[in-house]
Amino acid sequence: MISLATVIKVALEILQWLIVARVLLSFIPHNPRHPVLIFIYDMTEPILGFFRRLLPATSLPLDFSPLVAILVIQLLEHFIS
């Protein structure tokens, strides 16, 4: 039987890969109305938006929220296992 910790860990791993996909997609031109892209944005925006609000604004045109989100997800995975 699959434990709750395993299910949470797999969900966090999937979320982490969706964030990586979103970062990679930001470097290439794409159709923002594509259903797969809409799914990726819908799944990652709540967590990235949360970290964007927490992080101070910088003069650099870089979004550090994916980096912070992945670090927090990895920390959560470490505590779960």
From TrEMBL:
> At the top level of its lineage, which domain of life is listed?
Bacteria
Q: What is this protein called?
A: YggT family protein
- What Pfam families does the entry give? CCB3_YggT
Q: Which family does it belong to?
A: Belongs to the YggT family.
Concerning PANTHER family, the annotation shows: PROTEIN COFACTOR ASSEMBLY OF COMPLEX C SUBUNIT B CCB3, CHLOROPLASTIC-RELATED (PTHR33219:SF14), YLMG HOMOLOG PROTEIN 2, CHLOROPLASTIC (PTHR33219)
- What's one GO-annotated cellular component? membrane
